[in-house]
Design a protein that fits this description.
This protein has helices at residues 9-16, 127-132, 154-164; strands at 21-24, 42-45, 51-56, 62-69, 72-83, 86-93, 106-113, 116-120, 140-142, 147-150, 177-181. The protein is mainly beta and 186 residues long. It has an eight-stranded antiparallel β-barrel. The N and C termini lie far apart (42 Å).
Amino acid sequence: MKKTGLILPVLTSALLLTGCIVETLEPWLSEESLQDDPGIVGCWQDAKGRELTFTKTGDPASYDILLSQNDEKQLYTATLHRIDEQEMLNVRAVDNTDATETVSYLLLKVVLEGDAMKLLLLDTTTFEERVAKTPLKDKYEGDPVEAFAMSGSTSEQDKFVRANLADPTFFDPEPLYDLTRKKPDQ
């Protein structure tokens, strides 16, 4: 699949491992929905032994995320957003190995309940149909098997997310990560 200017080898291999994704050139959500949540800070682990460590940066509602798995580490940066009662992470890989690499973003739904956190991707089975009904229809490419790439502005994508957020099938039903807070003695 041709992905005009979109290169995410580190992000797609390290964060996702399997499955189809939707990535964008511009952030998904505008600054007006930024939201700090101290409950997200800390080290989280899933049943596969993958660890995600969230640390607060100096910017509003911004976090560094260190993914550790199979003796490999990858750094991501994210902003946390809240629309109505829904929290979402706007995530991008931090990779300084190639200055010409395009920065791309993923949108993850956050379900935080005490010491449990789930991160869910957009549901790609309905994505093409959803985007075809919007002004973004001419600003994406891809297929539901490999990946979708968006090139719309943040304001266009923000409207798209807000218009679809109430639909429970907008995000995958199965989490990309099903995490529990790692205790300091673990």
